[in-house]
Design a protein that fits this description.
The chain is of the alpha/beta class. The protein is built from twelve helices and twelve strands. It comes from Commensalibacter oyaizuii.
């Protein structure tokens, strides 16, 4: 005997005949199904027979021990299972909309991820969940760590936080490093570079407050005396602009260069050093029970990363 935990209220949106069909399938006989539906067995039989006439084939075989599906009935049952699962999802989403009241969710995100992920999140949330209000701040990975620790932020989106015990890493997306150069730079035309190839040229380096600093500087220690560092900055956007202006080579996560490549004023070249790869993580406090609003936003962020990377 097949059973489905879906409400007749939602099935009625599809077709009352299907409610009758599902009841016979669930309860195994016309009499038991009619009792559940609070109609007479003859009325239920008539509805099913009319439906069978409409589609031109029987759906059940009437046997002494109850009703058994024909091949056509089995096909209809499989179709109904899909329909009911879709209706259940609709019911759940509508229920979520009704339950989420006016609530503010605080997000802190690294500047490099803010320009891509956050507009998508805001558009989705404001369209589908008007009861959720967002506050979005940008900061370094260390500042995001501190904001989560102090519970000033509900969600942190940061690079290279690793797996801190107090935080739960909801999703982690790895990104390679790119060297950013002017369109007439000598390295243009190469399909990839090693960091050791870049040290012969002027460099634009991240300041220690950026997670990128930890990924690059250890690999450049052996070249320390030969480095020609033209500038350091804690602004990803400024480093890209200076590279595009020909000041030197900047280094940025692929996430950043994907977001910034709306003009053709710089060239990005993949860096082959495996050690330079970074991960963008989405974090919440491990022990804190998350509100439904936070869970919805986490689902939207994960949806964005799944679709784009």
């Amino acid at each position: 005997m097949n059973t489905h935990p879906f409400s007749n209220k939602m099935l009625n949106l599809y077709s009352r005949v299907f409610v009758y069909f599902q009841a016979i399938l669930t309860y195994g006989s016309v009499r038991a199904a009619a009792r559940h539906l609070r109609i007479t067995p003859s009325a239920l039989t008539r509805q099913i027979q009319n439906f069978e006439l409409d589609i031109g084939t029987p759906l059940f075989e009437r046997r002494s021990h109850g009703m058994v599906l024909t091949q056509a009935g089995d096909i209809l049952s499989s179709h109904l299972r899909i329909v009911m699962e879709d209706l259940k999802r609709i019911e759940e989403r509508i229920s979520i909309l009704q339950k989420i009241e006016d609530e503010q969710v605080n997000i802190m995100v690294v500047e490099s991820a803010a320009s891509e992920i956050i507009p998508y999140v805001i558009q989705k949330i404001t369209t589908n969940y008007p009861g959720i209000r967002l506050r979005v701040d940008t900061g370094s990975s260390q500042e995001i760590w501190n904001a989560l620790q102090s519970e000033h932020s509900d969600i942190g989106i940061a690079l290279a936080l690793g797996k801190p015990r107090k935080f739960k890493n909801i999703v982690s997306q790895p990104f390679a490093l790119d060297a950013i150069v002017h369109t007439k730079h000598a390295l243009v035309g190469k399909t990839s570079v090693m960091l050791s190839e870049c040290v012969s040229y002027p460099l634009i380096m991240p300041s220690p407050s950026l997670s990128l600093y930890k990924a690059i500087y250890p690999l450049l220690k052996s070249f320390q005396e030969d480095l020609n560092i033209r500038m350091e900055s804690n602004s990803i956007d400024l480093m890209i602009r200076m590279a595009a202006a020909g000041v030197g080579i900047a280094f940025c996560s692929r996430l950043i260069t994907d977001a910034s490549q709306d003009k053709e004023d710089f060239v990005r070249i993949p860096v082959l050093n495996e050690e330079t790869k970074t991960s963008l993580g989405v974090y919440v406090i491990q022990e804190k029970k998350q509100t439904r609003s936070v869970e919805v936003i986490l689902e939207v962020i994960k949806e964005y990363l799944d679709q784009n990377f």
